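Fold this sequence, please.
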Amino acid sequence: MLLLPLWKTETDDPEWKMYSIANKESACPVSIALNQIIQNGNNNSHVMAILSLIEKVSSHEQGPKLYEGTPVCHEAVAGEGIYEFRKGDLRLYWFYGQPRKVIICPHIFTKHVRKTPKAVARKLIQLRDEYQNAHEQSDINFGGN
C-alpha cells in the first residue's frame, strides 16, 4: 500500500503526519479532489478552512485531539474509529494510523445529507481495513518523503 503526504504543510517537521491512500495511478486522491474544488471555484472558503485545519492539526502536539468531539471533528462512522473534519458541506474523513502521530485520510466528500451515506461508510471501512492489513504485513510505503 502506498501512502502519500496529504498536503505540504508550512511546518518542516510536523508533530503529526497526514497521509492519503494512493489510488491506482499512485496519486493522492484527496489532494486531487481538493485541487478540483479550488479550480471549480466551489466551496473555496471551505477548502481553505480544511487546509488551515490540516496545518493546525499537523503542527500541534495534541493533533486531532484538539478538535475531536467538536462541530469541526467527530466520529463519522459510529464505532469504527473513522472521523471527519468538516467545514460547511465538505468532509475530510480520517482515522489514526501507525506509527504514533500518523493520520490517514482516505477520502474527501461533499456531503449533502446529515448522515454519512452507507456506501461511503462501507468504502471508508474497507480502506481502513486494507490499511490495517497492509500495516500488519509491513506492506506500507510512505511515498513523497
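Strands lie at 2-5, 17-21, 73-77, 82-87, 90-96, 102-110, 141-142. Residues 2-139 form one domain.
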